[in-house]
Amino acid sequence: MTGLTAPGTLEREYAEATEEELAERVREAKAALGKGLVILGHHYQRDEVIRFADFRGDSLKLSQQGAAARDASFIVFCGVHFMAESADILRAPHQRVILPDLKAGCSMADMADSDHAEECWDELEEAFPGEVTPITYINSTAAVKALVGREGGTVCTSGNAEASLRWAFARRPRVLFIPDEHLGRNTAFRMGIPLDEMVVWDPWRPHGGVAPESLRRARVILWKGCCSVHTRFAPEHVDRVREQVPGVQVLVHPECRFEVVQKADQVGSTETIIRTVGASPAGSRWAIGTEHHLVGRLAQENPDKTVLSLSGIACQCATMYRIDLPHLCWALENLREGRAVNCVSVPEETRAAARLALDRMLSIR
Ligand code: 13P
Ligand code: SF4
């Protein structure tokens, strides 16, 4: 194994091969690589890709599985860039992490630039010395995670956001929550924190655009960031589906807007959504507010229930969608030939502090 790292580009023959051919080649490459390879797949991936995942999960489950998969030399991450970065931070020294298409980013993570986050942190520290704990959603860059790690904070996912906020409030009276304002607001509100004790920090405005008296009252400072997929669900969608589908239960992801979450019957992370629908009795009717590949699979896997997308239109994560069969096949065949293409490698100076924040997350129950 030469262990080359190159930001590779897909050769034409992969783009032109049929789905059946590529699937067969992926199977062969996977078999040849054996235990030296583990493929992790996020639930929002396409069907033709997720079926090759050794483990599928939401962000929390995949980061735990990535950290536990010590036998494999290569972790191929079918997800987005911040997930591969987190796996790279948690990996053992002999392991490498590969993202089949390096352009698979996350628009939410891009909304929190680490320089902006540093400026915000400095202002908050000046206003409230020692009073703020930073929490970053895992959907953020390694540099933001490193800032949070250095300043005594933790990473969270949608699966453990409430536990993370409790952990933080047990230590200091205020929280800076980066970068998803909706996950932060929905979680804090559910824990009993009123909306007038939360402010939204806009990194593009002086002092976050927050008036001094609002900041003084704030227990939760929410970064102005959002998911381009989940914010497409609207309160009108909830009203409409209730009219059209008698007895329907509305279950949404906490990255949805506050008004949508308030109208829904239940809110939960990706794993919670899957578990809840799976455990419901035959004949149940569900309208789900999350990414449409997951909703489509839930419908297939629960043929005795009605499972619909809340919006009625395909809310798809365009960046997750970049991981397709040609890219997966290309990455695996290169590995088989001894070339590790599209490795994600977090710089050493960032790794240790970011790891601190991720390890805190993995230890919070
Ligand atoms: P979870 O995987 O934590 O449910 O988050 C959803 C998501 O948007 C991933 O990017
Ligand atoms: Fe980012 Fe939203 Fe896509 Fe998740 S679903 S990767 S938060 S854009």
Describe the structure in your own words:
The protein is an alpha/beta fold. The chain has three domains: 12-103 and 319-346, Rossmann fold; 109-227, Rossmann fold (3-Layer(aba) Sandwich), CATH 3.40.50.10800; 230-309, 3-Layer(aba) Sandwich (Rossmann fold). Helices cover 44% and strands 16% of the residues. The protein is built from 17 helices and 15 strands. Strand 13, helix 15 and strand 14 form a beta-alpha-beta unit. The radius of gyration is 21 Å and the shape is globular. Mean pLDDT is 94; it is low at 1-6. Residues 58-60, 139, 157-159, 227, 255, 269-270 line the site of 1,3-dihydroxyacetonephosphate. Iron/sulfur cluster binds next to helix 6.
Provide a brief overview of the structure.
With 365 residues, the chain is α/β, with parallel strands linked by helices. It has 3 domains: 12-103 and 319-346, Rossmann fold; 109-227, NadA-like (Rossmann fold); 230-309, NadA-like (Rossmann fold, 3-Layer(aba) Sandwich). It has 17 helices and 15 strands.
Output the keywords.
binds iron/sulfur cluster, 5-stranded parallel sheet, binds 1,3-dihydroxyacetonephosphate, Rossmann fold, 3 domains, globular, alpha/beta, disordered N terminus, 4-stranded parallel sheet, single chain, 365 residues
